[in-house]
Design a protein that fits this description.
By secondary structure, this protein is an alpha/beta fold. The protein has three domains: about 30-270, no CATH class; about 355-565, Alanine racemase (TIM Barrel); about 590-685, Lyase, Ornithine Decarboxylase, Chain A, domain 1 (Beta Barrel). About 40% of the residues are buried. The protein binds pyridoxal-5'-phosphate (PLP). The site of pyridoxal-5'-phosphate has 12 residues, from helix 24 and strand 10.
């Protein structure tokens, strides 16, 4: 993925510090001397946004409908648990001093504290964070984002009646009992089960939205919720319903809209603020204790402890100094660690995906499509080697709603990544798999009458696009079979959503080819017309892949099935195309120099002694071979590579896992240098088109054969 420093969220990072101070305020009551009411509003109402904001931030980066493995969750849980462990140890002396270990029923109480309430008053945040993340993640995975919101909101409401609305729950004896039982297990409902999950889910929802969508609405939503939350908090306080004052109904929209507004600011990441806020959160109670102790020793309690406002300022100052010092250390440590890890994970052979170019190509296609036409992104064969997951997620987030794949497995994979919208399977699927087609809501191509009839005999309703063979003679109903095609429309379990054909000579602009293609189109239209005359409502119609679109532009249809041009390349170089698009290549293919060796004049290199040096030379062994997708047909000086911005030749035969390049002329060449086979290095560029041509194939094949072994990054 392309690194872009302006893609972080400094708004969120900065507000972390503000949120941390709100928590300090909760524990120091800065306005208590001035007005009890003002202090209540600040610390028991407004400051309650702080912790949900932290949860939502974690959810924003963690929860996604695009689940692709649990790695991110595991990492988050591990970090949280480690941090919790360290914090517990840190506060252990204070626990000891407070006589924590002398309490009755120590073991059950300790379990309860570790799991729910925290072993020190503010530490509940960490187990709540871990449990909330895991719960939200699991529910979103099982039920999808919207249902997860409903479920976690229901949990939150249960929590409300054990918190700010406790007085209301007490009026019903059933509830009285339920909550009494609940409070045997946990001291509060503001924990990882009832409180945190909804904010994690909301974080995931915010991550799906484009940052500057509905800025105004978010501001209005925020202002309204703040006012309502204020009214809600004050009323509940007056009613004396509050058992605790962490949870309000309007806290949820308030944090959500506020957070959405913070995501509008994009720029450099503020790493120090993130760490700093966490340190303030964890250590401020320690600072409170130290301050009290120091005040007692120096006899300055009247100033530093009893005056609430000065107390708040003093604690804040101490925590800021401490967090500046520690976060500096931490950031440096992390950078060192990163360096070590980078060395460890040194890549062998890899592809890089430029998502901005992918989106640019998609926009370029959309811009030039006939009116009323939609882009159907063809992402078969692992998105032509680019990675189906990354490609599909990127395109869907930018608004693409229709995808095409070759096989049912590819379709199911897309669903498991969380891709919604329409997915058309272009290839043949065994009718025995009708249940899966139905379950994953995949659209099947009806390859001929027998195929459609067999699908109809299964017990599941299935969506299909009918394919018409207009001359390719691969899949499809013959143009003459209009009666049979019409029959499919009346099949009980088949819902025909589209009808399409595939052109087989639309790359060429030779007269003969154009004539053939026009005949294909005419035959296809004749079928459509015949169906219309039979009174059939014509579904979506499409016939163009990349080249059909470029050579026969502006012909109305419902979809363009764009494959190769989406990835920013033409199938072959130097073609005569009617509609020239501004395409930008998406994929780069690179590997490393792993060894350098001097070869004397007249010595051979590699298998079959296929290359004999004519002079004393320097060869570099490169960590990529044909098993990684570098075609063996590029052997023996047919293929080129870039290293240190210079073009060099592939010499000898390409092996399965390595190849050799001639670096005699490359000054400064060193082991570890990056070698580019497709893509840019400095001012030089090797295009997929020229590589494919040198290998005697088209870019479609070159890209689709990118090896499984390649790392993506
Ligand atoms: C692969 C395929 C496409 C996409 O072709 P490109 O030339 O890569 O755009 C479109 N339609 C069908 C039926 C295909 O099989």
């Amino acid at each position: 993925m392309k690194k872009n420093n302006d893609k972080a969220y400094p708004g969120i990072d900065s507000f972390r510090i503000a949120a941390a101070f709100l928590v300090v305020a909760i524990h120091t009551s800065p306005l208590a001397d001035i007005s009890g009411q003002a202090d209540f509003i600040l610390t028991r109402i407004f400051a309650r946004t702080a912790v949900p904001f932290f949860f939502m931030t974690s959810g924003f980066f963690l929860i996604s409908k695009y689940h692709n493995g649990a790695d991110k969750l595991k990492k988050f849980l591990k970090h949280t648990v480690v941090l919790y462990g360290i914090s517990m140890v840190l506060y252990l002396p204070v626990n000891l001093y407070n006589g924590y270990f002398q309490m009755e029923h120590l073991i059950p109480n300790m379990i309860k504290d570790v799991l729910f309430d925290g072993t020190f008053y503010h530490l509940w945040y960490l187990p709540a964070s871990a449990a909330g993340a895991a719960l939200a993640w699991g529910i979103v995975k099982k039920a999808g984002m919207n249902s997860a919101l409903v479920m976690t909101m229901a949990l939150y409401v249960v929590g409300l009646f054990g918190d700010s609305y406790y007085g209301a729950a007490q009026k019903l004896p059933v509830f009285q009992k339920v909550y009494a039982a609940l409070f045997e297990v946990t001291d509060y409902t503001r924990n990882g089960v009832f409180f945190a999950p909804v904010f994690f889910v909301l974080g995931g929802i915010a991550a799906q939205k484009r940052p500057d969508n509905n800025k105004k609405r978010c501001l209005i939503g925020f202002l309204f919720s703040v006012v309502f939350m204020l009214a809600e908090g004050l009323s509940l306080h007056r009613l004396s319903w509050q058992r605790h004052d962490s949870m309000y109904l309007f806290l949820v929209p308030c944090v959500y809209f506020g957070f959405r507004m913070l995501t509008v600011y994009r720029g450099k990441r503020k790493e120090k603020m993130r760490t700093g806020a966490l340190i303030i959160y964890i250590l401020h109670p320690m600072c409170i204790l130290v301050l009290r102790l120091a005040a007692r020793i120096t006899g300055t309690q009247a100033v530093f402890v009893e005056n609430n406002f000065v107390h708040f300022l003093a604690v804040s100052a101490m925590t800021v100094l401490l967090s500046l010092f520690l976060s500096g250390l931490f950031v440096k440590w992390k950078a060192d660690q990163q360096k070590i890890n980078n060395k460890k994970g040194e890549k062998r052979a890899w592809i890089e995906i430029d998502e901005e170019n992918l989106l640019h190509n998609a926009d370029e296609i959309k811009k030039t499509m006939p009116e009323g036409c939609k882009l159907m992104a063809v992402i078969k064969a692992d998105a032509y080697g680019h990675g189906a997951f990354q490609t599909a997620v990127c395109l869907e987030q930018s608004g693409v709603e229709t995808f095409a794949v070759a096989t049912i497995e590819e379709g199911i994979d897309l669903r498991s990544y969380g891709i919604g919208g329409e997915i058309l399977i272009l290839g043949y699927t065994d009718p025995g798999r009708a249940q899966e087609l139905h379950k994953y809501d995949l659209i099947q191509t009806a390859a001929d009458y027998a195929h459609a009839a067999a699908l109809n005999r299964q017990r599941y309703s299935i969506k299909v696009h009918i394919k018409v063979d207009t001359g390719m003679h691969r899949l499809g109903f013959s143009c003459k079979e209009t009666d049979k095609i019409a029959e499919v429309f009346s099949m009980k379990r088949i819902r025909v959503c589209g009808i399409y054909t595939h052109l087989c000579d639309c790359e060429s602009r030779k007269e003969d080819a154009v004539r053939f293609t026009n005949k294909q189109l005419e035959d296809f239209y004749r079928v459509i017309k015949a169906l219309k005359e039979k009174g059939i409502l014509i579904p979506k119609v499409h016939m163009f892949s990349s080249y059909g679109f470029m050579n026969y532009p502006k012909i109305p249809c419902h979809y363009i099935r764009a494959g190769i041009i989406l990835y920013g390349v033409y199938s072959m170089p130097e073609e005569h195309i009617k509609l020239r698009l501004d395409l930008r290549p998406v994929l780069s293919l690179r590997a490393k120099v792993i060894l350098l060796r001097k070869i004397k004049s007249g010595e051979s290199i590699g298998y079959g002694r296929a290359f004999i040096t004519e002079k004393d030379s320097m060869a570099a062994v490169v960590s990529i071979g044909y098993a990684d997708g570098l075609p063996r047909s590029l052997s023996e000086n047919r293929g080129e590579a870039l290293v240190r911005g210079q073009r060099v030749q592939i010499i000898g035969k390409i092996c399965m896992d390595q190849c050799m390049i001639d670096v005699t002329e490359v000054t400064g060449i060193a082991v570890g240098d990056t070698v580019t086979f497709i893509g840019k290095d400095g001012r030089e560029e090797i295009t997929a088109e020229e590589t494919a041509k040198a290998a005697g194939t088209i870019t479609n094949e070159l890209l689709a054969r990118m090896g499984k072994r390649l790392k993506r990054g």
